[in-house]
Amino acid sequence: MAGFFKKIFSFGKKEVVEERVDETAPLPPIKWDALEALKPEAEQAAPEVSAREPEPAPHPPLDGEGRHEVAGRGDRADAEARASHPHPRAALGTSPIEGEVEPTPQPAPEEPKPEPAPAIPPAPEPTVPPEPEPLPGPKPEEEPQPAPQTPEPPAPEEVPPAQPEPLHAPAPEPAPQEVPAPAPAQPDIEPSRPEPQPEPAPVEVPTPPAEVPPAPVEVPPAEAPSVEPSAEADAEIAPPIRQPAPVEPQPILAEIAPEPEAVPSPPKPAPSAGKVTVSKKVEQKAEPVKAPEPAPRRSWFQRMREGLARSSRELTGNIAGVFTKRKLDEDTLQDLEDVLIRADLGVETALRVTDSLASSRYGRDVSDSEVRAVMAAEVEKVLTPVAKPLELDLSHKPHVILVVGVNGTGKTTTIGKLAAKLTDGGLKVMLAAGDTFRAAAIEQLKIWGERTKSPVIATKLGADAAGLAYDAFEKAKEAGSDVLIIDTAGRLQNKTELMAELEKIVRVLGKLDPEAPHTVLQTVDATTGQNALNQVEIFRNVAGVNGLVMTKLDGTARGGILVAIAAKHRLPVYFIGVGEQVDDLEPFSASEFARAIAGVA
Ligand SMILES: Nc1nc2c(ncn2[C@@H]2O[C@H](COP(=O)(O)OP(=O)(O)OP(=O)(O)O)[C@@H](O)[C@H]2O)c(=O)[nH]1
């Protein structure tokens, strides 16, 4: 190729000077604007050849004359060729003159490149704007490939602009996402920079989906074809002189590559010692949560003693006040009697205590502890005859227990507790919800029935209680129950019609068994006080109460009233209630109760 000369006519010297042309030197920039101005209007009409590829002929050999015209006519021809054969981008609205070195910098292969193997992921090309669709089609290679130097289209007179030899037969279908992809669009491409080798990254780019989130913007697959075909073109054609180089590829690649490793998953806590389950993942087996140890329950006696503490404190304090440094005389005995009566023990019991003291210690110095000991002994004497166990005559089938008492004194609760004792003892128990005035009472009894596995006979609200008692008695007979416990309405004893209902219940039960009800228990609230005496009086007369259950002795009981009731009515006290739980029904003990209320250890 040596022998290119440039003839320069010098007006000053009137001669032609020949200069050797360095064909490898970069050509001066083409003044497109100047050429455009020189072009006639008609020539600027863009034919629809834009889709056709220009001849990818190798650089035509230029003789000296030809080269001489390159600066003038050659540039014009080039401009005309551009006008008549706009760059494919022009058809897409992109200005073909985006840079001085415009014509597509990618060397054009002779044949359309086959589609890159789909197995090879595209190499990340950071310089190209991200392509949403990875289409590694052959379009980039099919772009008109200019000569390594400035494109040299044929002269306008030799090759009509409208008939440039297409590089490839039909132009590629205008895939909008493919054309703008190639890097040559960048105006500031380094022409002399060689085409970067395709990155081996394709194999590395696919990131483990579980660990690294996809970074679509950073790894546009559409860029791959622009890289790989270029490499092939390098192999087929002479080394390209001007190859568009990606702009700053390395920094972005550096961002992509380390990503999989650069995002370490947070350290997972290793399961501690113990059992683990492996299902979807390894999970530590939850240690069974130990229920906190329930506080040891106080004995019923402790609870009763604490319940009687109020009575006991008041009583013993007053006793101590009476007998501080005083001899036992008539005045002190009178004062002691008053203290005992105020403690609900009743006149009879009070006199028993004072009489006992007077007979043994009259005229002597007496301490309060001596007085309390005498009192405990006398109270015990009063209570011992009534502290009897409940006896059931099971010759009656069933033994009928009628439970009465003022509302709220603990009838239903006591029935439940008692049923538990009986069923625990192997007896067959049936319950009857005779309190037809209160829906809650019926439900409450049903709950106790479930707890104690005792059938409950109930009827609708407001129904005749006597009729229910009769039905329950028959059913208990049929069922072979050992015990039938009948609940009743807890109404005030001064209501005549309510008392009449109790009398009626007793009457109808007697029709099935003249001795029924065999036991009539009355619940007495130990916190009631003096009114309990009247309650027992009335229920005893109406319903024939023949036994008592003193309830709520675990509360702020006024225990003295039990002594008064026992002394007056001499009714057996079968049980005391010391709580709301099923086993909070204790047999009554005269000595324990007496010592508790007298404050004697
Ligand atoms: N602390 C304590 N509470 C009790 C005792 N006995 C019953 N109770 C409570 O006293 C309240 C009334 O008890 P019930 O069994 O419903 O009394 P009732 O006589 O059947 O009442 P009525 O159905 O209205 O006639 C309930 O909250 C019981 O839990 C006891 O011995 N100690």
From TrEMBL:
Keywords: Cell membrane, Cytoplasm, GTP-binding, Hydrolase, Membrane, Nucleotide-binding, Receptor. Residues 104-138, 145-185, 194-223, 261-270 have a biased composition (Pro residues). Residues 32-294 are annotated as: Disordered. Residues 572-585 form the SRP54-type proteins GTP-binding domain. It catalyses: GTP + H2O = GDP + phosphate + H(+). It is found in: Cell inner membrane; Cell membrane; Cytoplasm. Residues 250-260 have a biased composition (Low complexity). The keyword Cytoplasm applies. SMART domains: AAA (SM00382), SRP54 (SM00962), SRP54_N (SM00963). Its EC number is 3.6.5.4. The keyword rRNA processing does not apply. CDD domains: FtsY. It is a peripheral membrane protein. GTP binds at residues 405-412, 487-491, 551-554. Belongs to the GTP-binding SRP family. FtsY subfamily. Part of the signal recognition particle protein translocation system, which is composed of SRP and FtsY. SRP is a ribonucleoprotein composed of Ffh and a 4.5S RNA molecule. This is Signal recognition particle receptor FtsY. It comes from Mesorhizobium vachelliae. The lineage of its organism: Bacteria, Pseudomonadati, Pseudomonadota, Alphaproteobacteria, Hyphomicrobiales.
